[in-house]
Amino acid sequence: MILNVDLTSDVPLYQQLRDRIVEAIAAGVLAEGSSLPPIRALAADFGINFHTVNKAYDLLRQEGLIRLNRKTGAVVTVTAADAAFRADWSARARTLLAEAAARGLPPAEVLATCRALLDEFDTSESGETK
User: pLDDT of 25-71, one tens digit each?
Assistant: First the structure.
C-alpha cells in the first residue's frame, strides 16, 4: 500500500493519513483483515512524529475502520454504518455540496463528479466489484 501525503498542505498530516487509509479501504486496496504498517515504521517512512500516525490510527479505531491490538498491530475491520454515522456523513456531505453550490458549480457537474468518484471505490455491497 502506498500512501501519499503533502507535507506542505494546510490539512494536518494525521487527517491526510486517515483520509488516504479510508480511501484505500473504499477502493479495496485494504481489505478486511489487512494489516497496516506499524506506527513507528510509518512515521519513520514519512519522517514525521509517531504521535501523528498514532492520532490517525486512533481516529480510524474510533470510527470502527481498524482494530488496534498489541500483538497484531493495526488491522482493517470495517463495521457497518449505523444511524449516528449516517447522520454525521449526511451533514458533512451537505456542507461539501453547499460549498460547491456556493461557488457556482452546476448540479450536473457535481453529480457527475460524485458518480465518477464512487466508481473508483469497491461497491461490493451492490454486487459490483472493482
Answer: 999 999 999 999 999 999 999 999 999 999 999 999 999 999 999 88
Instruction: Tell me, yes or no, whether 44 and 88 share the same domain.
Output: no
1 lies in some domain? no
pTM (predicted TM-score): 0.83
Q: Is 5 part of any domain?
A: no
Number of alpha carbons in the 13 Å side-chain half-sphere of residue 62: 7
Q: Is 61:54 a contact under the CB 8 Å cutoff?
A: no
CA–CA gap between residue 4 and residue 50 (Å, rounded):
17
Instruction: Enumerate residues 6+ apart whose C-beta is below 8 A from 32.
Output: 76, 77, 78
Read off the DSSP letter of residue 74. Answer: E
